[in-house]
């Protein structure tokens, strides 16, 4: 499987784009005419630059408004084509993309268009060039790949072929199975893009909202399966017009792009088609729980954090045999507190201050999970081991954190016994009845959200939920969840659009993205709340107005509402069940804990978020959030 990406997909000048594309491991690049025109080097130098990066120019584009023109425009169009051919030959590429005519003067007519393409094919053949025809979803007469294919078929010229673009086909809901009957040698290249489902003008949707396969809602996999059925084994080329990507980091976007293609290729291969050759990699890892969350803290802060964890019902159960690392446990929850000044934890502390910088997941096969992550472009993470330590497979997460992978079939299953000495915690505080981690909430800049989403869903057997807008009084936070069927993995991703939101403040002040809150599960939130109160744990105070509204909204019994109110418990309900939530105040720059009880409920209390955020802001305001 050969991968390519159009220069229009990422930010920077042509030089920066090519560097990022080569570094991400692509084989080829589509040169967009505007990227070339805005650059100062000659076509020959640009071609050399591409080849110096070890890349191939997969095509030059776009050539617009070609077919079906009346004279004298028709003759001029052919002259224009000859000049593009000159440029392509200097640059060193043999394929040009001709997109279907959008001109109001285009005459239409399948045979007229076929005749035009035959003549263009003759001219291209003299120079050893090829022409690929693509139906734009908004083309004047041709806006369906089946009609474009009919034109190519009737042109019947070896130098004329078809270009299929998943966006144009899928945005118009054209049956992808119509691709299965196209001969593979007539498909000159495949362009791929996904997009979120938004009901809007096709052109605007295409030019601003495309994203990488797997990041949006279009059935790109079904499209690719149909392509693979033809036996096509040429380039898969990303053509992504996205405002955020054009403003984002070229390196990060290029890595996402390559990851999306490899992941897509792997899915096609697993669906039983072998025309795509790509390196074998293990299947997506099955997650059966969160093994631990690790905090990096300063020695001076440990007693504050330890005391806080004890009031939450945790017990100090282990001390690392060779490092300043401690484990606190309750139910299936393991919280690791790392105060070791050396190693990655220390470095992470120096950069971000106190934070939950690492997460360990229980998977079916830890080494296989890491192998898959690395095949998808993730960076393997490791640190020198002390005698007696076991190596825990890990990769760098997207936001600079670490994702550890553990399985129950290796020594990793006994990590706590092997590496830690037991500690007898003589606290007299009450257990709170927390049983596990319901979800981990990570916060990042909005433009990075898709990167995180793709990272998790490509490596782990999990799916994404639709995006939800969380209204913070200071702006919008976009939230999307990565979760698996059994509910053993739930990660909420919160993309902050500006730094005045609670989420944005957290990113700005911790100098990066990361875990902003941990939600612990309990089977009885009222008992948990009572125990917390006995332990002196102050929960976040929710406005009384919330409860009046809640009672009316759900028709709750006043006595029940009073119980919720007495403990600052938030409530929600969906078709599947009930949800109860309570929160800690924020610590430091915005980290907090949540305790939830869910009975069948599938969401995350989005309707309550505005009340929670308002309460957290009241708490945080003295130390920095702007007053609204
Ligand atoms: Mg295209
Ligand atoms: Mg939550």
UniProtKB/TrEMBL annotation:
Database matches in Pfam families: AP_endonuc_2 (PF01261), Glyoxalase (PF00903), Glyoxalase_5 (PF14696)
GO molecular function ontology, one term from the record: 3-dehydroshikimate dehydratase activity
EC number in record: 4.2.1.118
SUPFAM superfamilies: Glyoxalase/Bleomycin resistance protein/Dihydroxybiphenyl dioxygenase (SSF54593), Xylose isomerase-like (SSF51658)
A biological process from GO: 3,4-dihydroxybenzoate biosynthetic process
Binding-site list for a divalent metal cation: 134, 165, 191, 239
Pathway the protein takes part in: Aromatic compound metabolism; 3,4-dihydroxybenzoate biosynthesis
Residues reported to bind Mg(2+): 439, 517, 594
Superkingdom, natural source: Bacteria
Entry keywords, A to Z: Dioxygenase, Lyase, Metal-binding, Oxidoreductase, Pyruvate
Family: Belongs to the bacterial two-domain DSD family.
Name of the protein in question: 3-dehydroshikimate dehydratase
Catalytic activity reported: 3-dehydroshikimate = 3,4-dihydroxybenzoate + H2O
Entry cofactors: a divalent metal cation
Function text: Catalyzes the conversion of 3-dehydroshikimate to protocatechuate (3,4-dihydroxybenzoate), a common intermediate of quinate and shikimate degradation pathways.
């Amino acid at each position: 499987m050969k991968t390519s990406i159009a220069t229009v997909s990422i930010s920077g000048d042509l030089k920066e784009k090519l560097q990022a594309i080569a570094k991400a491991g692509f084989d080829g690049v589509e040169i967009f005419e505007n990227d070339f025109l805005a650059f100062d080097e000659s076509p020959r130098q640009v071609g050399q630059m591409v080849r110096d990066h070890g890349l191939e120019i997969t095509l030059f584009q776009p050539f617009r408004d070609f077919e079906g023109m009346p004279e004298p425009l028709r003759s001029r169009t052919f002259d224009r084509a000859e000049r593009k051919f000159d440029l392509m030959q200097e640059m060193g590429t043999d394929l040009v993309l001709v997109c279907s005519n959008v001109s109001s003067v285009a005459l239409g007519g399948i045979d007229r268009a076929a005749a035009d393409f035959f003549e263009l094919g003759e001219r291209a053949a003299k120079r050893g060039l090829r022409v690929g025809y693509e139906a734009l979803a908004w083309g004047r007469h041709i806006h369906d790949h089946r009609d474009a294919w009919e034109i190519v078929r009737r042109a019947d010229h070896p130098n004329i072929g078809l270009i299929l673009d998943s966006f144009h086909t899928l945005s118009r809901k054209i049956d992808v199975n119509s691709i299965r009957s196209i001969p593979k040698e007539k498909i000159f290249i495949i362009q791929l893009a996904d997009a979120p489902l938004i009901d809007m003008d096709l052109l605007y949707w295409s030019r601003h909202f495309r994203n990488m396969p797997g990041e949006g809602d279009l059935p790109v996999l079904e499209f690719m399966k149909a392509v693979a059925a033809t036996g096509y084994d040429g380039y898969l080329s990303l053509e992504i017009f996205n405002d955020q990507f054009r403003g984002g980091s070229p390196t990060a976007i290029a890595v996402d792009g390559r990851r999306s293609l490899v992941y897509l290729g792997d899915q096609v291969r697993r669906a039983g088609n072998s025309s795509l050759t790509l390196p074998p990699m293990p299947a997506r890892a099955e997650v059966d729980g969160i093994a631990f969350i690790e905090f990096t803290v300063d020695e001076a802060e440990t007693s504050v954090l330890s005391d806080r964890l004890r009031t939450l019902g945790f017990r100090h159960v282990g001390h690392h045999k060779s490092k300043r690392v401690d484990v606190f446990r309750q139910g299936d929850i393991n919280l690791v507190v790392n105060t070791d000044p050396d190693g990655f934890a220390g470095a992470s502390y120096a950069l971000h201050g106190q934070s939950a910088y690492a997460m360990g997941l229980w998977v079916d096969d830890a080494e296989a999970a890491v192998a898959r992550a690395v095949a998808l472009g993730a960076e393997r993470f490791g640190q020198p081991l002390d005698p007696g330590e076991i190596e825990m497979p890990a990769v760098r997460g997207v936001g600079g954190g670490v994702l550890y992978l553990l399985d129950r079939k290796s020594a990793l299953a006994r990590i706590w016994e092997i590496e830690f000495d037991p500690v007898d915690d003589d606290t007299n505080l009450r257990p709170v009845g927390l049983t596990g981690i319901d979800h981990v909430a990570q916060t990042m800049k909005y433009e990075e959200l898709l990167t995180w989403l793709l990272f998790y869903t490509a490596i782990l057997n999990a799916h994404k939920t639709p995006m939800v807008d969380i209204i913070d009084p200071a702006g919008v936070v976009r939230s999307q969840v990565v979760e698996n069927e059994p509910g053993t993995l739930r990660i909420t991703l919160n993309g902050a659009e500006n730094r005045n939101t609670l989420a944005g403040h957290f990113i700005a002040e911790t100098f990066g993205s990361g875990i902003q809150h941990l939600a612990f599960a309990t089977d009885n939130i009222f008992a948990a709340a009572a125990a917390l109160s006995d332990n002196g744990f102050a929960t976040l105070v929710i406005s009384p107005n919330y409860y009046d509204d809640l009672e009316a909204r759900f028709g709750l019994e006043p006595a029940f509402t009073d119980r919720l109110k007495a403990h600052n418990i938030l409530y929600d309900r969906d078709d599947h069940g009930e949800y109860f939530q309570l929160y800690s105040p924020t610590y430091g720059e915005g980290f907090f804990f949540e305790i939830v009880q869910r009975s069948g409920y599938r969401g995350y209390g989005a309707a309550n978020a505005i009340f929670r955020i308002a309460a957290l802001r009241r708490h945080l305001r003295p130390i920095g959030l702007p007053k609204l």
